[in-house]
Write a structure and sequence with these properties.
339 residues; 6-stranded mixed beta sheet; alpha/beta; D-Maltodextrin-Binding Protein, domain 2; globular; 2 domains; 16 helices; 47% helix
Length: 339
């Protein structure tokens, strides 16, 4: 009887171990072996999103058990909205598709923008390479060198649509800093906007500092542009450029601006599909965190003039919940500014 009881206990213990979280995690450790991961990029080839995503793709596999191939694919449309909607509704929910989605994903959902077919709170955030500082630049030949100049005369800038943080920054400056900025929409992407600046079609543009350093570092190094304001985290390289948020003293106005600067806090966000198994999310997050410390990755990032100051998937979850809980009255005020 003692022998039978002992055998029974061993059998029960075996079932417990096989069904334990650790065992399930070990099983998922082999999930990616022999597979590939699609990395969707919601913006044009050659731009900052594309550059960052492809940089991560070159190194991420080493930190995923099974070392799956990472296959970058551009899925362009509606300033990143197409890729986000695909990830939320059509992508496999098994961790084999990730996407670098648009920075303004939370703002668009909070405002109920046309075309939004996702719930950002259900996406499984993986991480972001860095927070971003948005800057307003003017061309050296425009005659506009400072924020005061932009208050005295009209400044024409180019962007793609009203959904972008570029348009938002100009609108916030007009509303709270008494500037006279006129935004021309319809540009296809960053490359077209940069050409418009160089040709004198517009006086300047809004661009993430990280994108400027990646795409047009010579503009800064050769003094071809003036940085007249910034939005989001104050860039350590540009302490002299006025920060829009810091210049606003009314607390409710600052909360309104904070709804927009959530995009800066997300940076260039990576996510996988809703309902992806928790163990796969854990694997992808750990792989991203490991990549951000990888010496080879950091060397490549430095060569490409890409700053690395990563945001974790858990921190992005917190930011998502905070923004989507913004009081309705503030959301309405913010939405009215860009309509």
């Amino acid at each position: 009887m003692r022998s039978l009881s002992a055998a029974w206990l061993v059998l029960v213990a075996g079932f417990c171990v096989a069904g334990s979280p650790q065992s399930r995690a070990d099983g998922d450790e082999d999930f990616y072996r022999g597979k590939s991961i699609s990395l969707l990029i919601g913006h044009e080839a050659g731009g900052e999103y594309d550059t960052q995503a492809r940089l991560i793709a070159r190194h991420l596999s080493r930190h995923i058990p099974g070392n799956p191939a990472i296959v970058p694919q551009n899925m362009i449309g509606a300033s990143g909205l197409r890729a986000t909607n695909f990830l939320a509704n059509s992508a496999p929910r098994d961790g084999t598709t990730i996407a670098m989605v648009a920075e303004n994903i939370l703002q668009n959902q909070a405002f109920g923008q046309s075309g939004v077919q996702y719930d950002a709170a259900r996406l499984r955030w993986i991480g972001s390479l860095t927070r971003t500082s948005e800057i307003m630049i003017t061309w050296h030949g425009s005659g506009i060198k400072t924020l005061d100049d932009a208050r005295r005369r009209e400044v024409v800038i180019g962007t793609s649509t009203k959904l972008t943080l570029h348009y938002v920054m100009a609108t916030l400056m007009n509303q709270f800093l008494a500037t006279r900025i006129r935004v021309v929409t319809g540009y296809k992407g960053g490359t077209d906007m940069n050409l418009a600046v160089e040709r004198g079609e517009v006086d300047g543009r809004v661009i993430a500092l990280s994108a400027l350093k990646t795409d047009k570092l010579e503009w800064l190094e050769e003094g071809k542009v003036n940085v007249i304001a910034q939005l989001g985290p104050t860039a350590k390289e540009l302490p002299q450029a006025p920060n829009v948020e810091a210049l606003v003293t009314n607390e409710e106005d600052r909360e309104l601006i904070g709804l927009f600067t959530a995009a800066n806090r997300l940076g260039r966000p990576l996510a996988t599909a809703p309902d992806t198994p928790e163990d796969r999310v854990r694997i992808l997050r750990a792989a991203f965190d490991g990549t951000m410390k990888d010496a080879a990755f950091l060397r490549d990032a430095k060569s490409a003039h890409i700053d690395v100051n990563p945001v974790t998937g858990i921190a992005m979850d917190r930011e998502t919940k905070r923004v989507l809980a913004t009081p309705a009255a503030i959301v309405r005020r913010a939405k009215m500014l860009i309509e």
